[in-house]
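Co-fold these.
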Amino acid sequence: MNDARPIATPLDLDTKLLAGTKTDGEDNQIKSVPIEAYQSAVGSLMYVMLGTRPDIAYAIGLVNQFNHSPRWNHWLAVKRIFRYLGATRDWGLRYGTSNVSGGYSDADWGAGEDRKSVGGFVFLLKGGAISWTSKKQNSIALSTTEAEYMAMTQATKEIGWLRVLLDELGAFAHIEQLSQLHGDNQGALAVARNPEYHARMKHIDIQHHQQKRSLLLIRRRCVLTQATHLLRPMRPVRPDLRCNAPPHPTLPDATWQRSLRPEATWRPPYVWTTPDSFSHRFFLLMRR
Amino acid sequence: MDVKTAFLNGELQEGIYMEIPEGVREDTEPGFACQLVKAIYGLRQSPRAWYQKIHTFFIGHQFLRSTQDYSLYINHERKVILLVYVDDLVLGAAHLEDIRWIKAALSKAFEMTDLNVLKVFLGLEITRDRSQRQLTIHQQR
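Predicted complex below.
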């Protein structure tokens, strides 16, 4: 594929990729795709994506769904990703170009064959991506708000992890910025900001309680941390006493003071920010 | 940096014996075997023995293993961060002298290859533009 025709996008959004039986066009009838070759090609793409290419994550998620019975049109889609990579061979992640840091989440609403939405997020640090995911959601979203809200939930979990990691690395300066999650759906942002009462979001509550995978539970945990963030954040106890490293740094006073202020002040408009004590409490809660 | 024949550094917890390799000593009596004193390549426990070894080394040098990623070690005192992938090491520090310190300690404990400035790690190519204060990770293949 080294001298394949270059192409500007990894995916043709005009034609939907469907499972084999429903798309038996002429080519699909005649030409068969060797399953090993297909799977190995997708595997190679996956490796590239995990390394440095968040831009092809969504396209790979699509072609990945046909690993068990690839047809000709799926093979064409895989080749298109290779063509795109060939055209953008020298692209990479660059850090330090700007001071943009934070999380960005989005979802396509029910674009797939089974109407499950694909949600994703990317976290930027100093203008470069440090963490990204594109994943088909487990349940079917009935509205864009729901789909985006579920994507934001995934991203929030990532924030929890990132905060602990940055904390360990001693990169305290970045923690606050990276904890800002940006969404582009006003409904989802409103629900995230004020989970009190939204008649049209009630079914999320019911549905997810039933599944014991409750978004609402996670959200309540957030609310819980907001309400109880007057407590000092819990620090993981270092198990290794042989180390002479200095005791784990606690929150600087300024941060501590800020967490005492009423909730409303720390929330910038349209950005869902997590409170300071969020990560540890969240982390502990999530582990149960 | 790169550790030469990393697995040979591992310490074995249990007694392991192997057949005497061909051509070692022709005069050994039949029924004799070699007892392994240290780990060799191909053993089931070699990777683990190596990891234990290097883990102990880092802990002894005031590093803390990250709870989020077991291949990440952090020395808060000297501000040194390092990544381990089997025998490949990536070192990072705020000051060059700390890099020299850990390099010297590593070279004393293990036989090392110094690959100088980080260019490739796990198939990812890393280029730095110090004048612009930019860092790029890419996979041109």
